[in-house]
């Protein structure tokens, strides 16, 4: 690694491509899982690194906002199905045997109406089978008096 370091002035430059997969995965674990998965397009080496993440952070509202950033529409059933499939793929196609943290949140009533809660139970079971250390589940089962994160005034 020392022979690959370049000097700029008095500073040594370390490129992220020089870091080990374990270090890159540790860094990616601080991102929401959706963003960490998106990094798989950066290089061939990173293509499957997301499957080794130990911290999984699934947030339907940020996933939905990413899908709809060019439109003003609120969540649709296809967005919800895309999110469910995303969580399935990340959880069930993992390389890593252990999960440090499993975080799942959704504040959108349309989500609960569209998903079978047995699916959420399967996600939790998959995390437990991988010796999860910490689980955070936030699931809105009914409308609240506040504006929810789907952009629907209640």
Automatic annotation (TrEMBL):
<dbReference type="Pfam" id="PF00646">
    <property type="entry name" value="F-box"/>
</dbReference>
<feature type="domain" description="F-box">
    <location>
        <begin position="16"/>
        <end position="55"/>
    </location>
</feature>
<dbReference type="InterPro" id="IPR001810">
    <property type="entry name" value="F-box_dom"/>
</dbReference>
<protein>
    <submittedName>
        <fullName>F-box domain-containing protein</fullName>
    </submittedName>
</protein>
<dbReference type="InterPro" id="IPR053781">
    <property type="entry name" value="F-box_AtFBL13-like"/>
</dbReference>
<dbReference type="InterPro" id="IPR036047">
    <property type="entry name" value="F-box-like_dom_sf"/>
</dbReference>
<dbReference type="InterPro" id="IPR055294">
    <property type="entry name" value="FBL60-like"/>
</dbReference>
């Amino acid at each position: 690694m020392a022979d690959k370091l370049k000097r700029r002035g008095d500073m040594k430059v370390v490129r992220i491509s020089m870091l080990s997969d374990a270090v890159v995965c540790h860094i990616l674990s601080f991102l929401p899982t959706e963003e960490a998965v998106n990094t798989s397009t950066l290089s061939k080496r990173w293509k499957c690194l997301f499957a080794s993440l130990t911290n999984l952070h699934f947030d339907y509202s940020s996933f939905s906002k990413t899908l709809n950033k060019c439109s003003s529409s609120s969540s649709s059933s296809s967005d919800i199905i895309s999110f469910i499939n995303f969580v399935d793929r990340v959880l069930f196609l993992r390389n890593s045997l252990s999960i440090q943290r499993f975080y799942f949140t959704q504040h959108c009533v349309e989500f609960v109406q569209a998903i079978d809660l047995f699916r959420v139970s399967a996600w939790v079971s998959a995390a437990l089978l991988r010796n999860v250390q910490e689980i955070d589940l936030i699931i809105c089962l009914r409308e609240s008096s506040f504006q929810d994160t789907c952009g629907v005034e209640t």
